[in-house]
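User: I'm putting together a teaching handout on how sequence relates to shape, and I'd like one worked example. Could you take Metal-binding protein from Sphingomonas colocasiae, show the sequence you're using, and then write out its predicted structure as tokens right after it?

Assistant: Happy to. First the sequence, then the structure tokens directly below it.
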Amino acid sequence: MSALMPEAKRPLRNRVNPFGEIVATPERGMFMGNRGCLHDANRQIVRHAARDAWITCLPRWPGIRRQLMRPGHYTELFFLDEATSLAAGHRPCASCRPERWRAFRLAWQRAHDLNLPPKVAEVDAVLGEERGRLVPFEDNAPVDGLMVTDAARSGVRMWRGGEWWKWSFAGYEAATPPAGPLKQVTPPAVVATMLAGYDAYIGAAAG
């Protein structure tokens, strides 16, 4: 298996929250992501995205030892879990996670009543329109992995196993039901895809 090169003691700004924001925090998470090259020669984030395709990748790949934020290369982003990356508007990578991309596009096809599975560019176009746009949450039967917030964006709750869980970079904690009115963080097309059978990987409880 490959490994990531050690970072400096100060965390890099390359962790992503469910809103798609890139922050600095020590926790790494289950998955890596890619939006193109977002950093400068000093490994400082200077743009939010550099490509239409926002993908979720495996953090390790056989035979590759990666130095984070190499000049001129894509910026390695990190997510707590796949539910977080989906909320942020990323999709499974078709190259390093082909089986998950296949499952995602077949569920997307069912959810959107398409004759054929969607092409990569078609999915990316829809996600580009929807990511970052919070819509009112009105569903009384949420799907596992769905994330919501309140009007003040004071925190994120994730639905799993019939309960709400409080999201953090360190993991999930049991939480009281969120107070409304609520906003849906996970893009509508992704929620429809999960309802059609795509099971997102969800991280463990904090601690």
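A couple of points you could highlight for students: The helical segments are 82-87, 98-111, 120-130, 188-195. The first helix runs from residue 82 to 87.
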